[in-house]
Each structure stands twice: as structure tokens, then as C-alpha cells.
Design brief:
Strands 3-2-1-4-6-5-7 form a seven-stranded mixed β-sheet, with helices on both faces. Helices cover about 40% and strands about 15% of the residues. It has nine helices and seven strands. The C terminus is likely disordered.
């Protein structure tokens, strides 16, 4: 069997119902005659935060069917960022991709994402903006569009990447190993890695993709998650710039929180019970 060159890491929490379609669609895309990456060179790692929902049994069945997939069940750690980092640490491939388990990151884009990584392109980002990928916020309520757009705008001073919020991204192992003090509690690990691994703009590849819809389970967008993101941004501004800039940013965050609370009250549905949204695979 050829050596693994590519690893797909999938953080998951209570996503048992999505694991079979996710894995089979990934390998079906890789098996296509026009795939730039051969399926035998790819492994899939599920990093599960002790869901106890049958995820282990699903993976075991897939393994018996010949799919190169394995699962890591964490019992003492929780969180998206730390799950992604754990998966990258366990990866056999030098080209590593992170994607959600909820099928909002279409598995059919995996070959193109993996193929975009190279010694000159250390980071690949699945972007929802440009390239004719489709409207990222189609069907979303007003407050959801404002939150998504606002989160992206706030990250612009930190990276030239068009969509560091998507969560569908890949990195070469040498760049991952250069990143120091990654925020294991942060909400957007891609943004954290772009800043702390000091990925220059010319080393970032972008692959436009159309957002899929969550198939099984619920979105985990909550006020607590958004607060964690704002806290992470503050830490990154402090890391990348200076205390003065971070203080100004803190004031801006306060205004944003007040605005979000206002949108929450006038919204037609509560923010914490959005049935279909961006969501993330690990679900914390």
C-alpha cells in the first residue's frame, strides 16, 4: 500500500449520522478519473469528543469496507481548535486538510483542496466569496448575515485571505509545525494558524466552493461561541500588533456586542436556536 501523503481531519461531536456519507463521498470524489489526488494516498481522521452516539461503530464498519479512515476519541479534552490540532499532530500526510463533519463543506471539493497545497502554497482556504461559488448567505435572516459579514470584516487586518471564517482549510505540515501558542479554545483555528504560522499572502491558495446544507444534527451557533470568537480576535490583534491597537479593538467589540444584542431582540427567531447555519463539525 502506498504511503499516505494527504490527511483529511474531521473534528466531530455527535455527528454519527453524517460520518458515512462524508467518508464515502470523500473517497468517491478521490476515485474519479479526473481527481488530481489518488485515493490510495489519502487518509481520513475523525477526532471525536466522546460523543457516545455510535460514531466509533460507524468508523469501524467503514474500515471493514476498505476505507482508510480512523477515529480518535478524546475523553479529557473538548473544543474545535484543539481537536483540529490533535488531528494534525496524528496525521501521516504532509498535506493536511480540515473540514466539518456536517456536510456543509462539500466532500467533492476535497481533491481540489488537497491538490492546491504545494511547497509554494503552504495554506489553502475554501472560500465562499468570489469565483461564482454562489451566495454564501442565501436564505439567512438579517442578523445571521450581519454576524457572518461582520466576523469576516473584523479579521481583514489580520490576513489577506478572503474567507478565514469558513473552517474549510488545509496547511502543509512544515507550516503547521512553525505555529506557536495556538489557541486551543479559539473558535476559528484557520485564522489563528494563518496569523501564528505567519503565512504570507502569496503562499495562500483559495478554492471557491458553494456551501452545503447541514444534513443531520443541529447547528451549534450560540452567543457563547460568538463571544469566544471576539475574544480570540482580541488575542490575535494583541499578538500581531500592539496593546494600543488591541485596546481600540476591544472598544469596537463592545459596540458590536451591543449591536448584536439589538439584532437578537428584533430577530424573528432566537440566535441560539438557528436550525440551519454555518455550523462546525466539532459542535462545541
Amino acid at each position: 500500500m502506498p504511503a499516505v501523503e494527504y490527511t483529511v481531519v474531521v473534528p466531530a461531536y455527535r455527528e454519527a449520522g453524517n460520518l458515512r456519507p462524508l467518508v464515502t463521498r470523500i473517497f468517491a470524489a478521490l476515485a474519479r478519473i479526473d481527481s488530481p489526488v489518488p485515493a490510495p494516498l489519502v487518509e481520513v481522521i475523525i477526532v471525536d469528543d466522546n460523543s457516545r452516539d455510535g460514531s466509533e461503530e460507524v468508523v469501524e464498519t467503514l474500515q471493514r469496507e476498505g476505507y482508510n479512515v480512523r477515529i480518535i476519541v478524546r475523553t479529557t479534552e473538548r473544543g474545535l481548535s484543539s481537536a483540529v490540532v490533535r488531528g494534525f499532530q496524528e496525521a501521516q500526510g504532509d498535506n493536511m486538510l480540515c473540514m466539518d463533519a456536517d456536510l456543509q463543506h462539500p466532500p467533492e471539493y476535497v481533491p481540489a483542496m488537497l491538490a492546491a497545497l504545494s511547497p509554494s502554497k503552504q495554506f489553502v482556504l475554501g472560500t465562499r466569496y468570489g469565483g461564482g461559488a454562489g451566495a454564501v448567505d442565501e436564505g439567512w435572516p438579517l442578523y445571521r448575515r450581519v454576524i457572518s459579514g461582520g466576523a469576516r470584516v473584523l479579521a481583514l487586518p489580520l490576513t489577506a485571505a478572503s474567507d478565514p471564517m469558513s473552517g474549510f482549510f488545509g496547511v502543509r505540515k512544515e507550516s503547521f509545525l512553525k505555529a506557536r501558542n495556538l489557541n486551543s479554545q479559539g473558535f476559528k483555528i484557520a485564522l489563528d494558524m494563518l496569523v501564528k504560522a505567519q503565512i504570507p499572502s502569496h503562499a495562500i491558495a483559495e478554492v471557491p466552493f458553494a456551501f452545503g446544507l447541514r444534513s443531520v444534527g443541529e447547528s451549534k451557533l450560540t452567543g457563547k461561541v460568538m463571544l469566544r470568537y471576539l475574544t480570540q480576535l482580541l488575542e490575535l490583534y494583541w499578538y500581531a500588533y500592539s496593546g494600543v491597537v488591541a485596546f481600540v479593538f476591544l472598544l469596537l467589540i463592545a459596540l458590536i456586542i451591543l449591536f448584536i444584542r439589538w439584532l437578537w431582540y428584533i430577530g424573528e427567531e432566537p440566535m441560539i436556536t438557528v436550525p440551519i447555519s454555518r455550523g462546525r463539525g466539532a459542535g462545541h
